[in-house]
Specification:
Layout: H1 4-9, E1 17-18, E2 21-22, E3 24-25, H2 36-49, H3 59-78, E4 87-90, H4 93-103, E5 113-117, H5 126-135, E6 138-142, H6 152-158, E7 163-169, H7 181-190, E8 194-198, H8 210-213, E9 217-221, E10 232-236, H9 238-243, E11 254-257, E12 262-264, H10 278-294, H11 296-314, E13 320-323, E14 332-337, H12 342-351, E15 354-355, E16 357-359, H13 364-370, E17 375-379, H14 386-403
Parallel strand pairs: 3-15, 5-6, 5-7, 7-8, 8-9
Antiparallel strand pairs: 1-2, 4-10, 9-10, 11-12, 13-14, 14-17, 16-17
Helix pairs in contact: 2-10, 3-10, 4-5, 11-14, 12-14
The chain binds pyridoxal-5'-phosphate (PLP).
Length: 404
Amino acid sequence: MFDVARIRNDFPILSRQVNGEPLVYLDNAATSQTPRQVIDAITDYYSRYNANIHRGVHTLSQEATDAYEQARIKIQKHFNAAHPHEIIMTSGTTHGINLVAQGFTGFLQQGDEVWVSAMEHHSNIVPWQMLCERTGARLRVIPMNKNGELELDTFREGLSDKTRLVFVNHVSNALGTVNPIEEIISLAHDAGAAVLVDGAQAAPHIRADLQALDADFYTVSAHKLCGPTGVGALYGKESWLEKLPPYQGGGEMIEEVTFEKTTYAGLPHKFEAGTPNICGGIAFGAALDYLNGIGMKAIAEYEAELLAYATKNLKTIPGLKIYGEAARKTSVISFNLEGIHPYDVGTILDKLGIAVRTGHHCAQPVMDFYGIPGTVRASFSFYNTREEADRLVAAVEKARQMLA
Ligand SMILES: *Cc1c(COP(=O)(O)O)cnc(C)c1O
């Protein structure tokens, strides 16, 4: 039995009011809310054992190092990576992608090809465009259809011995589509190419098994997983991480420094220059503990039911069009009201205490594909309820009547 009332009690923010109405938080695809258990981990760190890690012999430093490395192991176990040193702590998905894109500079040359999907977040497009500019490699695009699903035929036919890298999100943040990454990875590997999966939007809903998936790289952000902002993880296969050069130079990432030559530390420290977000990393571990306490399977089942319920009821509103109706979706509904700008809908919803996202959702190519400036995006989490979905539907109907 999924006890959503009990779960909601874990999230202090959910009991606040916005514009005199109880908050309905439906912007989970942008960032998730934080349970007391994670807030407590943050308070505990700063109250009891705040210290720099990996350096001090003193007790606080050792406690902080232990907790931080414990968090790395929690991330490894959660995603079933083979080794803890395959988990690089980052500031988030964007950092992880840039680390890999920068690292590949020396491995690509003129004429090489890299593929990206038509429904990527800007953070999984721009770093690769920059890589192509540096190296002369060519960026190719896996197209999508009106349902918001990737069309793999072009990709299948376009793969060749020139193909070096493929970047694709596991779940689209703009549409909620779950992409067939298993198939993409297997096709890419057959062509000898490496694959980076942007897992930022998938991780809150689907637990990727990294060994089964066989992705070469996988990136996540803690703040979409009930953790704090400014921390995330990059998974890389050991063989790739050994090959890639360091991203940044500094303390912590070296073995020995002289003015003649510096040798780098082993994994994962080679990629972790400077003092990391220690508290954030520990809180990320606490967030995974929290999610696993509920169970990712139970979360996915509950959210699927909520998605079906909200979709069905939103569709009763005249002139409402949903963008992205893929067969496999997470709990994201992107929509517009005919003839009404998404920003105006979002503004009225906020007056009614409902937080949604409006705009291009950092995925302008998706909006261009549909020929629209943006959408209203309601994204549900496991702490949302049917009553909140009802309030959304009533508020959208009210907005339609006011703006039509
Ligand atoms: C949120 C998101 C990102 C960016 O994550 P940051 O935490 O801002 O680095 C990238 N890709 C997808 C699919 C996302 O949903």
